[in-house]
Structure formats: C-alpha cells, structure tokens
Queue: 3 jobs
Job 1
Amino acid sequence: MGRDSAATRSIMDADTIDLYGIMPVTETPPPPSPLRRPVAVWRGLSFKQAVATLVIALGLGVVTGAWDMVSDYRRLRADVSTGVAAEMALVRGMAAEAAFMLNGDLAREVVDGLSLDPLAAEIRITDNFGGVLALHVRPPESVAFPKLAQTLFGDLVPHSLGLRNGTGGAMSEVGRLDLRLDPGRLLNRYLGHIASNAAAGAARTIVLCLLVVAVFYGLITQPLLRLIAMIARVDPARPGAFPIELPRRHHNDELGRLGETVNALLSASQRGLDQRDSAEAELAALARDLERRVVDRTAELEREKQGVERANAELEKANRFISDGIRYASRIQTALLPDSAALEGLVDEIVIGWRPFDIVGGDYYWIGRFGDKAVIAVMDCTGHGVPGAFMTAVVSSILARILHHHGHDDPATILGLLDGLVRTALRQDRGDGPADDGLDAAICVLDSDGRRLSFAGANLPLTIWENGAIRSIRGDRRSLGYRETRPVRGFTSHVVEIVPGSTFYLYTDGVTDQIGGPSRRLFGRQRLQDALARCGDRPLEEQKDFLLAELDLWRGEQPRRDDMTFVAFRPHKTDDAPPEAAR
C-alpha cells in the first residue's frame, strides 16, 4: 500500500476515529532544517540531568526521611511506654503501701520520684475512697501544633495502675496510681530529633548530587552533547546524506551503538512510513470493534442496573416490614407495662424512667396494689432489642402468675419462685435446654399500715434517701435463670422501717454503666448516689429530670450501651391509707 492511498484512507476514516478521541495521521511537509545555534544552558542535557539527579536524590531523601520519621516515632513511643511502665512498676510497692496506710508523706515521696521524668505532666495517688494522697502537676510545655501532639501521642498520655495490698489470694484494691504525660513535650522531643536527622540528610543529599552530576557529565553528558550536535546537522529531507560520525573513544560502548542505530534508522525511514500506513488501517478496524463492544456492554450494564434496582426494591420492602414489626412490638411491650396510678393512696409520689436501648428493650418494671400492700419491681433481662423484649414478655407473664396465685408478701419468696419458673419456662431444668438466658431483679413490698418496706434483690440494689443522707442495700450476688448456674435455694429479705419523707430508688445497671467523663469511665453507683443526694429533697419528677440530665452530660458524645430503667417512690406520710381491692 502506498503513501497516497494510506493518506486517503485516513481521511475517509477520520470521523470514525474521532469518535474515540484518536486523531488520524495525515501527511505534513518536512520541517525546515534547524538553525545551527547552541542549545541554551537551561534547556541543555547537563542542566536537566542535574535537575533530575537532584529530584531523584531529594525523592530518595524524602522516602528515607519518612521511613526514619516513622521508625523514630515508633521507637519513641516504645521507649516512652516501656519507661513509664518500668517507673510505675518500680514504685508500685511503695505506692500500694502509702495508699494502704493512707500515708501522705510516703505518697509524696513516690510522686516526687516519678516527677523527675521530664515527660510527666500530672502524677496522682488516690486511696480506694477516692481521696487524693499526693498530687504533682507540671505546667504543659508550649507547642506549636497542639492538635498534632494530641493526635500522635494522645493515647500515650494516660497511665493508670491499680494498687493492691495483701498476701496470697487475699489481695485487695487499696488505691490507684495515675500518671499523665505531656503530649507537647513528647512532640517537641520528636520534632527536635526529626530536625537534626533532616539537616544531616539534606547535607548528604547535596553532596551526593554534586558528585553524581560531575561524574555523569564527564563520562556521558559531554560525549552525548557532541553526538547530539552531529544529529542536529542532519537534513530531515535527506537523512541518508549526512551519516552520523561516531564519537572518539566510544565506538564500542553505548554511545557508539547509539550512533550506529541512528544511521540505521535514517536509512529505514521510508519503511517506517509504510508500516505506519498499515498501523492506521488496523487502528480504524480496532475503533469499529471497540464501538460495537461499547454498545454491547452498555446494554448489559442496563440490564444489570434493572436487576439491582429490583433487588433494592425488595430489600427496602423487607426492611420496612421488619421495622414495622419492631414498632408494633414496641406498642405491645409498652402495653405490658403497668400504670403508676395503681399505687394512688399508698405512695405520695412515684416516677418511672424507662428508656430502651433500641425501639424495644430488655428492661421491665412492675407496680401493683394488693389491699394495703404495694409491690414494686424492676427487672433487667438478658440482652436488649427484640431478644430482650421476648424475655420481658416471658418474665411479665411469670411475675403476674406468682403475684396472683402464689403470694405477694415476701419479696425473697417472689424471687425464688421467679427463678424456678423462668428455668422451667426456658427448659433450663433439663439437660437439653437451648436457652441460656436470665435476669437481674429487685422487688419491694410496701406495707402502708405497718410503715415497713421489705426488699430482696438479685444483683440489683435498693437506694434510700432519708433525713438528707443516702444509703444502699445490696441485693444477693446471684441472677435468676441461666442454664449454667445452679438454682437458688433462697434470697435474703431486708426489712426497712419507713421514715416519713424518705425516698426509695430502684434502677437497672444500664443507669450506672454509662461510659463518659474525661477518662471514659463508668458513671458508677457512687456518682449516682452523689447525684441523688444533691436532689433528694426535690419532687420526684424533678429528680428524674435532674438524674437523666446528669447521665446525658456524663455520657457526652458516647452512645448508650444498654436499656435503662429508674423507679423512685415516696410512701404515704400517713398511716390511714384507704385499702382497695387487689388488682
């Protein structure tokens, strides 16, 4: 195929090729012979070679520097972690003795010794009552990038060590040793090490660049420049008229081979043009095949898209069905919860805070009246969400059966019956029982005439506010149900004489297990009692709002972890509450 026919075919296929962004190759007149003028310095090979060498050297320096930074960072973290652990282990015995003996002087000696570490920002020794025996605080070191310091070393800042005292298996918690590092000092130490390494690396890079450029210029660049000058004198219109003269002393090396290759290329230029025409024809055929494949693939993708849309519609329908079912289950669970108005006449006030973790939950409460007695119960079943809601339905049915058919006077008896019937309902009394579920519970029986309250608990306490003071009665350390635990023989019943104006609180562990605060710790029973002590003389509705606000403030941005139930009531202040028929 000749050049003229190839050019004509390129023009005919130009529209097809342009569809894919490929420009057709057309014949252009040969360029004029270049002027015989020297190459500018900044465009010369030596300049580009120097720049390329510098860029490569700098690139390698950046990579190695980054690797050194990461290595230094890891090494610094490991050294700090190991050092702090060693320091705390070294003083652990003295700190435990100081906390056990409540010896402030000994505790200060331990703190003063740890304060010799320049990275320490705060050192604190507390006893198991929360009292501070010794405290050392060092002002934070100024740092240009405080957020970076917190990001890189924030997880290394807090260190805590439980202090135990005793012998053998009788070790007991006597306090804590807390040490906080200064992330600013850590960052400044790290940046100083990086700066020194960077300065040394920059100096090595510059020296290496100068040596490489000098060697390459003498061995390669200068002979190559002479070869380029001879190639530049070749006339493009007559490439064979001026063969390239090979550089002296380079006939048998790469530069000599380059000159020979250029001469061969000049003599084969016409053959290259013919091959180009053939390649243009193949490219046009490839473009047409590509167009057909694009159309087929587009149709296939459209079919797949329709299938995905149908699957998404089915998935959305199934999700809506599940959500509707859970919301309906929430209405059923809410309907199972009793009305607090059932205790009217027996209590002056009663408030209930019930917050399921999901739409439905595993917490359940029960209040009811039997003549001049009231039964108030709070239960925390296994799990939350739908499984927990199923457990509350089972427990609700069993508790109603116990109260109406077996008795309602003794809370310990109620717990024992509840344990046995839950095991029977879940087939845990047989070896093949599939369910390993159970619950924690707290039950109060209020005797309005006798001005007494009976309480029994299974892993849940009763908290009492009276005469401006808070105290708690712990329940038995055992749960109800569960396949792997043995049936409970009996629970302990506690009788409390009711002081006029006193308030009683029942709650599940979802209240005390809220994670939050500056150290991301549990809210805990102590903080709960402190909060109730501050608001114990207020109306119960205000107390509930205050407690929930305290929990939300403590939790901050942390999510809730469990269902939460809180019941508070104040018995009637008079002894002549009118009896009513049992409900």
Note: The domain at 339-571 is CATH 3.60.40.10 (Phosphatase 2c; domain 1).
Job 2
Amino acid sequence: MNVIIVTACPSGMATTFLAARRLEQAARRHGWNPVIDMHSELEAGITLSESQLDAAELVIVAASPVASAGLERFVGMQVHVASIEEALPDPEAFLAMAESRARRLESADLGSIDLTKSGLSSAVPENVGTTTQTAAKSVPSIVAVTACPTGVAHTFMAAEALSEAGRALGYPTRVETQGSVGAQDALTEQEIADADVVILACDIEVDPTRFAGKRVWRTSTSTALKKPRDTIEEAFEGAQVQPAGGEKQGSGQQQGEKRGPYKHLLTGVSFMLPMVVAGGLMIALSFIFGIKAFEEEGTLAAALMQIGGGAAFKLMIPVLAGYIAYSIADRPGITPGMIGGLLASTLDAGFLGGIIAGFLAGYTALGLSRYVKLPQSIESLKPILIIPLVASLITGLVMIYVVGTPVAGLMSALTNYLESMGSANAVLLGILLGAMMCFDLGGPVNKAAYAFGVGLLASETYAPMAAIMAAGMVPALGMGLASFIARNKFAVPEREAGKASFVLGLCFISEGAIPFAAKDPLRVIPSCMAGGAVTGALSMLVGAKLVAPHGGLFVLLIPNAINVPLLYLGAIVAGTLITGIGYAMLKKGAQQVETAAVS
C-alpha cells in the first residue's frame, strides 16, 4: 500500500525526525511503500508531486500543531490526523490504528480546523479520525525514579541529567530521587497516571507496583547520567507495560536494564549501608572516651559500643542477606533471607556467608512462588505461610549443615591473612583497592571495592576500609586541585565545576570528578587511578584503620575514628597532588566541561 506520512512538531527538530524515521521503519515492516514528508530543520521538507498524491491510498499526519501539516493538500483522500506525541511510543500500533480509523477528508472539514493553534477545534467532525482528542493532547510527559546503592551522588546527578534532557527535548519531566535519606520529590499518583512513560534509572531494586499499567523502561543511573537524551528516546521506543503485582514485564530483561546477581548484591549493600554507617560512627564516638573505655560497664562509652557494635553491626549481615533475597523474590524473600543472614552471623561466616544466604533464600523463595502450584483455596497462604516456612527451612538447613562451617573457615583465614600480612602484600592490596575506587567513579568496579571494605567491618577488619575511603576521595579532590593550579587551561565553567568537585571530594563522593572524566576520560581516569593507587598503598603501609565507612575527612574530627590521623591525611594529600598535578600537566588547553546533563 502506498502511504504518505507527514510529521511536524513545534521545535521542528528531534521529535519530528524521530517520529518520521520510526514511522517509516514501521511502515516498511508492514510491507507498505511510505513517502515521508518531514517538516524539520534537520532535513528539508519535500514537495509532494501530483503522482505521489494520486498514488497514495492513505495519508497519516502526525503533527503538533496540525496547521504545520498542510492538510489542504489531502482533500478527497483517506486521512488520519493525530498529534506527533501519539505516534512515538508504539509506531506499529499507531499505523494499525491509522489504517482502521482513516476517513475521507472533505473541504468542509478544513474550516473546522484552527490553523493558529496546536490542535483542532471541538467542531471537527468524526471523519477526521481521532483529531479532536489526540491533537489537543499535550506533549508526552515523563516520570522517572533514580536510585544508586549509596544514594548520595549518582542518584541526584542522574536525576538532574534526565530533567535537563527532558526539558531540552520538550517533554515535561518529573524525577523522584530515592537517595540515602529516602524518597525526595516523590511522584504523585496523578503524575504517574498522566505520564506517557516511566524511566527507572536504578542500580538497586525499587518497588514497581505503583507503575502497574504504565510503560516502564529500566536502565542504570550511570547510563542515565552519561546519555540522558538516548535514555529518553530508548524509553519511548522500548518501554513495556508493567504488569500488576510487580512482576517484570516480558520474558526477558529490557535492553536498558542491567539485572542479575550484581544488581541483587548492590540492593543488599544499599540497605545495609545506613546500618554500617550508623554503627561505625557509634563505635567511633565511644572511642572519644578512650580506646578501651567501653569495657567499663555502665559508662556512656559502653552504651555507645553496645548500640554500634552490639546492635547495628550484628544486624548488618541479616539486612544484607534479607535485601539480596528481596531483590530476587520481592517481599517473600525477606524473611528467609534475614534468617539465613543471622545464621551466617552466628556461625561466623561473615559477609560472604550473608551473601550466600541472601542468594539461596531469594532463589528458593522465587522458585516456590513461580513453580509450586497449589489449589486455589490455599493459594493465598503461599506468601504468608508456605514460602516463608519452606524457604526459611531450606536456607537454614543449608547454612547450618553445608555452608556455615567452610565459609566460616574461609572468613577466618581471610581475616587472619589481612591482619598478619607483611608490608609488601599490604601495599599491593592498597594499590589494587585504590585503583579500583578510581577506575569508574561510582560504577561497578568502584562499588565492588567499597562493598568488600564494608563487608570486612563485620569481622572487625578495618584497614581495607581506610584505604578505600582515602582513595575514593582522591579523584574529586584532584580535579579540584588541577582546576586551581592550571587555571589557564580550564574554562570558567570548568573552574566552577572544580570548586564543587573539591567539596564533594572532602565528603568522600568520587562522582564529583565525573564531569571531567566524561569529557576527557583518557587523561582523567589514569590520573585518578595513579593518585588513588598511591593513596591506598600509603594507607595500608602506615597501618591506618577506619571504623566508619563514610564521611570523608570529616570523620577525622571524631577522636580515634582513625588510628593514625596525620599519616592518613598525608596519604590523601599525596594522592591528591599526584592526580591534580598530573592532570594539570596532561590537559591540553581549555575544553568545556558539561556541568549539568551529560548527553
């Protein structure tokens, strides 16, 4: 079938071009022969010839405003008119609807069209398809949720990038951040209902049930931060309807969604992290009264140690395991996961045992939920009785009789090795952990190193955590230093970004260096890794031990939180100088660093 497809939008740029290309591809998949009349600044609009008009069996107009489509050319032809926004989400369905609803356009219909406004007047008769309702519809709106494991930097930077990109593309965009302090700018039910697409840019599991029935696209915070425009366009093209009940749509994962064991692990780490931070800081506060002051019962130091080490740190592994299982199996996984995690803790299997318990409980609960079919009369008992009971029983027995003893031995050997290793091995470990922290600035490698250090805190092994936090501060501090000592090589926005980066570095937020790394990765990343490796090595060499897993340099204000504060500070300064001076020497003149959305 010969088809004429007309696209136009107010900006005359990206939306027009995207709609035209997607409709053309969909039409060819239908076996149609399309002629595209695109009103865009990217390509000049064509003048339809008489032969093309005569041969056309159907005219499809996707335009906002409709006036820009030139409908007078198509009088007497089968025409379907709609807003361009209606064509974007599902072009094949849009074409099928256009074919079924097209009507003969009469000259009298043109008088009912308001050529001065975006859309049609209410007087348009039904034979112009769905023009009255669809053309008057506003441009597509987007709602999004961003969440990263630590809930500090990537969460908010990805939210800003999506918001900026949405505004640049002309789409109203609202972003909810689920950071370390909980949900901020929470989406309302009405905003979700009105949205055309939902973007979940999350590195951890978030509850999808409130988006049931909406078209949902999943991706990572890193992708949304670095390629926000691409993320939005991919969302309109590939989003799938979220089923009721929170199940994942479709038989496989979406292209933009990075799932699997790593994401489940990060979900557990994300929920465990506040427990570790609170517990570590409580322990550090107890040291204000002296390293051994907590041993005297009835004192404030003893109470702080009981809260931090006796309660918070004991809950670390059960929370880790419980929320790994939650990420896998949703709510039915929490009970067996936490039971398995507590068993791992009491069996001295440490965080490795907790990770195993979480995955075992999660996949057991998921298998029971999916594959065990019961009579309808007792099916409702599965989530509250059968799954918790059976999954907890299986997980507990496996932990006690199979996993607990060998993993406890492995953790004991690892702890003893870390505590007794010589200077050379300590330096090598510090180099490895420091380089990992600076490799991808909050990405998977960075998070793997951080999770390793946090997990060892439960075994009272504090040296790796000290090296990890020190090295993690270096990239952002180094970029701030470079923008200061080589001002002539940095444009004004770059110098402003450098100031913000330095402050973020003081707070142990490596992501402050991302704007620089995104623009000049071949120079920034090696400079950061060099500084981070030196810092990690020096921290391990001087025997630094840190009980608090976050807080940056401000943790040094707590007496005894770090055992060798001046040497530790010296390690950070050394790494910062290497990164800052190194990049200042390598940088080739002023290049604009994007300080907002990186597209």
Note: The CA atoms of residues 289 and 301 lie 6 Å apart.
Job 3
Amino acid sequence: MNKNLIFRYILIVSFSGLSTSIFAQQRGEVQDQEFVIRKDRVLTVPVQPRNFERIPVLPSPKSTANFNYMVKPFFLELPPLEIAPEASSKQFPRNNEELFPGFARVGYGNYSSPILELRYNLWEDGDYNIGAKLKHEGFYTGPIGGKNSAETHTNVGLDGTLFKDYFSLYGQVDYSRDLYNFYGYDPGNIILQDYVTSQNIFNTFKIKGGISNIEKMSDLNYDANLNVRLFADSYMAVENEVGINGKVDFWYNENLRTGIDAKLSLTTPSDELYSDINRNYFKIKPFVEYRKQGLSVSAGANIVFENDITMNKKSDFHVFPAIKGSYMLDEGFGIYAGFEGDVIRKTYYDFVMENQFLGPSNELLNTVQNFVASAGVKGTVNGEFTYEAGVNVGKYANMHFFNTSPTDSLRFNLEYDSDTRVINYTASVGWEYQDWYKLTGSVNYYQYTLNDLNAAFHRPEWELSLGNTFKPTEKFLINANINSMGGIVAYRSTTDKTEVLPVIFDLNLKFDYKINNQVSIFAVGNNLLNQTNQRYLNYPVRGIQGIGGLTVKF
C-alpha cells in the first residue's frame, strides 16, 4: 500500500510539473514551483443575517405654498453650456407719477395769504437721495386790527440718504422762521384804536444725522441718530438742545422679539427769569414682545434719569413698568389693556409750539406719568369698518397748563399741578368703501381732578374730529373735515373770574382736480361757518378763509 501511494504521488507531481511548464512556455518561464494539496482543509463562510427592516420614510418638508412642476424629458446629446453670470439689465416699468422729481405749488387767498412751496429730489442716479425744500405761507392781515394779527411761516431745508449694502446713512438740515403778533386786545376800546401789537419771531435751526439698517424684515433692526436744535425768539428766550436717539430690536423667531429704546436730551434754556440751567434727561426702555395667532403681549420698563428741581422730589432716578397686551378673539372682535409709567420730556420749545402766545416762563418741568391704566375693545366688521373704544385712567405730577398772565392779558403763563388725575374715555371708527370713499372719526372726553389749580385751564373737556375723503373720479378728490372741542376753561384777569369759552367748531373743505399727470388745481376753505373760535382767551381765529392755486410736477 505504501508503494502504491508513493507511485501515485510521483505521477501527480510529474503531470503537474508538465502542465505548469506548458503554461509557462505560453505566458513566460516559471521555475521552482511547488504545490501542496490538502484534502482535509474545509473552508467555512459565516452566516450573514438578513435585514428585514424597511428604510424609514423621511418627513416631508413643510412649506407655506404648493409648487407643481411639469417635467418633460429631452434626450439630446449636447455639450454642457458655459454659464457666465452677470447682473440683470431688465428695465422694469415705472409709474409715470414717479418720474417727476420736482414739485411746485403756488396759491393765494383772502387775509392777504400767499402760499409758495417747492420741492426737488435727486434720486435717479447712484445709491443716494438728496432733496431740497422751500415753503412760505403768510397771513399778512388777520381777524383783529388787520396787520396787528398778521402771521407768517417760512421753512427751508435739505435732506439726504446714502444707501449701502446693508445700512443707510441719513441726514437733514432745517431752518424755520415763524412770526406771530400778540393781538389779544379789545379792538373796540377807544384808547386802543392806534394800538400797534408787538411781534415775536421764532428762529429754529435743526441738524440731524443717523444710521439705520435697510432690510426692516431682518432679524436684527437698528436706528440711531444725533440731533441738534437751536431756538431763540425776539425776546430773551433761548434754548439749545443736543439729543441722541437709538433703538434696536432682535427677532428670535417669527413670534418673539426683544429690543431697547434709548433717548438722551441735554438742554440749556434761558429766559428773563432764569439762566445757566442744564436740564438733562436720559431714558432707556428694554422690552420683550410676543405675538402669535391674535395674541400680542409686550413687557418692559421705562428707566429714566432727569434733574429737574421740584418740591418734595425724592430722587432723579425713576423706574416704571411698561406692560401692554391685546387678544383678538376672532377677526371682528378683540380686547386690549395696558399699564405704563413714564417721564414725558418737556422743553420750552415744546411749550411754545403748543401756545405761541406764551410769556416769560418761571420754570420748565417734565411731566411725570406715575401710571396710565388702559383697557378697551377693538375690531373689524366685514373687513371695511374698524372700531375701537376704551378708557384710560392716569395719575400725573407736574402736568402743565396755560393760564392768562395777571399782569399782561396778551400773554400766558405756564402753571403746573403737583397731583393730577385724568380719566379719558375714547372711541374711534374708520370705514373705507371700495376706492371712492373713506371715513375716519374720533371722540375723546376728559375728567380732571387737580390738587393745586382751580381748573384745567385751556385744556378741552371733549374733542371731536371727523374726516371724509371722496374720490368720485380718477381726477377729482374732495376732503371734508370737522374739528370741534368744548369745555375750555379760562381765567379773565380783568374780572378775576373763570369762564368757559364758546364751543370751537371748524368745518373745512378741500378740492383737488388733476388736469393731467403734471398739473392740478386746488381750492381750500377753512372755518366755513365763520365761527369766532377761541382756542386761547382773547385770541379769536380767522373767519371764513379760502385759498386757491396750482400744483405742478416737473
């Protein structure tokens, strides 16, 4: 058996060598090759388990719109295109009304009242906008003594904006000259037949510059500006102000945002009774706001520093809450409420713009709003009629009032009340019917509770305003407005008594007719019922007053 096995093994090796040499002669020479055959070798492959799990389905992306695509196969063997991107040069159509950078208006009316208004803008080329304006309006005669009650207003200014990729720089320079006469005397007095009123001219110079982001729908929005105001009148009132205003807000998502509003005001007023005063005011208001599905809630604080000197003042530093919210129960009805305290900045310029017949002031004070609580309802009916009604209850310190001077009946003095309670009932409506009629109206009723004064001098007990806009054709526009107020209490120094002034009722109309896209004519009528309205004691306003003119775009 051993010999047979040996013999077989020799034969296998011989034939293997022979076959290897044959293949080597075909492909190349191979030498010294050895093969080992093992019959007991067993090759095993590990068992791989089958995966019966299905691939999970990924969630479909959500979107606010549906997109349908129609795909058509094209079997064309074309070489790839070389794309060279460049800015689009498509000329989008413009409205013809936007092509006129210039605007001019001229007119004339009774009471020797010319009006001239010019405006021109450079905006066609570049990334900037520059504008210039000029306006003069005069009433060279008035309701009392002709020229003795004259009044003129002149304003010139420049403004501009430079647009960059993500922000804009803006600025403005403005000058105003306003002339008033102290005409609150009795023209029927024989002694005053040749009386010549004294004039007061207000000169105001303003300059402003700031920066703001361009995309207002971005997550981060900001606006900051520096402004300077110089004011002087014909007497001894002078007030200069340097102010810095800034605000920034950040949207975390479409429902939640936070922000900060800040204001700095530094004024140096002087008058006959005071000088070398520095009135400083700084306010910062951080807040958080949440909006979602008809719900709007805002919570913040008014943090104020001011250095006015008053009796029983505890601190120059104030912190007040500022909370407000509203909720629309449905599209037609909602409720709102709020609670806020603040220090309202008041300068001499603010007072004299409210009452131009102000005499020398003893002191200037800000109004401290200890709180104002408000609540009401609002909504929309049929998508056309809007309404709002509510009540505000407030507590104030140093609220200002205008009272007749006991030594000069032509002028008014500033008076303050240390503790004032005010209840204000308010309502407003709006209605727009198609494209040819629009109605707006509001009414307010006030109740004052005072601590130091006998009455809320020269503040109305109620106010009413009603506006109507008609557009019967594309070329014709009509405005009819009513403004009324009543319950104004004044003190007459000659009788040492208070009295209620007659109700003020002013009906005014305005007509505009467009001849073409560049030329239109207008007519304005004020106090058409010829009422002797007195907003301030001894100062009746002009009677029926009309003016007509021409407007040109170029």
Note: The CA atoms of residues 19 and 173 lie 107 Å apart.
